[in-house]
From TrEMBL:
Name of the protein: Uridine phosphorylase
Organism classification: Bacteria, Bacillati, Bacillota, Clostridia, Eubacteriales
Entry's Gene Ontology molecular function annotations: uridine phosphorylase activity
Enzyme class, UniProt record, top EC level: transferase
Keywords: Cytoplasm, Glycosyltransferase, Transferase
Amino acid sequence: METTQHTMHHIKCAPGEIGRYVILPGDPGRVEKIAAYLDNPRHVQTYREYTTWNGELDGETVTVMSTGMGGPSTAIGIEELKMCGADTLIRVGTCGGVDPELVPGTLIIPTGAIRKEGTGREYAPIEFPAVPNFEVVSALKDAAARLGHKTAMGVVECKDSYYGQHAPETMPTEDELRSKWKAWKRAGAIGSEMESATLFVVASVRRMRAATILLLCRNRERENDTGLTDTVWETGPAIETAVEAIRALIRADREQAK
């Protein structure tokens, strides 16, 4: 596609090429898989970490776009999606466990996110909470129930350093990292990932609706307690739930517009 003055600098899409409703995986390799759940899926653009496909649900254009890993690329993607006309975002991703009671394969729907990331601080002071949109969270919860998927709802930790969590003993900040992880666990956090806090804060500032659904793929806290190593990597249930939630939001938005 030839670049024009209206094409976004990073996602290389322009207004009119993006749907109002967007599904956001982190992994570019997961975009085509998600788009296959839509009607008439088609590739739109690929540039850097941003791979974009479109499809339809009930005649409405729905976009699937990867964000890459972490807050900075997620925020850039959200900003440019907003400028292209998007207003409703659902992140579909994976996470690790913090609550040892949760079994891998559970779908986590965050009700809030710990702002242990830096990008959101460029948008709002740290006292501003990272919370998802209630309508979208409700749509995800109801969709998962209709589909018969096991879910958990609660606060997730969002960090910038993957290896700060998984290899804290290699970091000069080991004591702080371990202390905070213990605090999140004692306070009731249920999962750990890298994008939702940024998503929630940026979406709030830009007056967009946003929520997240995550596959709990591994729970090291549970492994430490039980000695069992279980992993689940099939993201189909999370994708199905996001698609069903967007279908419900489309219908609700149409009814409200009447």
